[in-house]
């Protein structure tokens, strides 16, 4: 009897993606981190009411913290138990991974940006990237490359 691969058993549901991050930064390395949520925040994330537009991560004191991530309040939750929508949220990583990323982030020009949020086997996970900012000419080049690719796909293929 063959045993199914563990990846086949996983249930991954995408919630949101930070498209702006891929436009403004070169993503050099990625890692998956858990996110510590309170109460009704989990239900809001499941509904897709989360925004990573202005979000970034800070590494200090042996922890990685997700900053400026907006999670809308769950509409059916008790008003007294709803946490602040943009409060700092702790990301859960192994210590050795955190130390490695802290060293990499200490280099000039590097920052840690959340790239996407998804549900994996019922748990909210954040894909975090070690990024280096693009120059203006890099952004223009990536837009020109994308437009050229679209034009090439639009042109009907000629058979010989």
How many structural domains? 1
Output the helix-strand order: HEHEHEEEEEHEEH
Over all CA atoms, what is the radius of gyration? 19 Å
CATH top-level class: Mainly Beta
Question: What is the number of strand segments?
Answer: 9
**Could you list the spans in which at least 5 consecutive residues all have pLDDT below 50?**
none
Straight-line N-to-C gap: 49 Å
In what range is the share of β-strand residues?
35-45%
The CATH superfamily bears the name Small protein B
Give a quick account of the main beta sheet: strands, pairing sense, barrel closure. 7 strands, antiparallel
CATH topology value: Small Protein B, Chain: A
CA-based shape: globular
State the assembly state of the protein chains. single chain
SS class: alpha+beta
Walk across the major sheet and give the strand order: 1-8-9-2-7-5-4
Summarize this entry quickly.
With 160 residues, this protein is of the alpha+beta class. Helices cover 29% and strands 36% of the residues.
SSE layout:
Layout: H1 6-9, E1 12-17, H2 19-24, E2 25-35, H3 41-46, E3 50-51, E4 56-60, E5 63-67, E6 70-71, E7 89-92, H4 95-105, E8 110-120, E9 123-133, H5 136-154
Antiparallel strand pairs: 1-8, 2-7, 2-9, 3-6, 4-5, 5-7, 8-9
How would you describe this structure in keywords?
alpha+beta; Small Protein B, Chain: A; 7-stranded antiparallel β-sheet
Task: Please give a structural write-up.
The chain has a single domain, classed as Small Protein B, Chain: A, CATH 2.40.280.10. Helix content is 29%, strand content 36%. It is built from 5 helices and 9 strands, in the order αβαβαβββββαββα. The strands form 2 sheets. It has a 7-stranded antiparallel sheet with strand order 1-8-9-2-7-5-4. A two-stranded antiparallel sheet has the order 3-6. Strand 4 and strand 5 form a beta hairpin. The radius of gyration is 19 Å and the shape is globular.
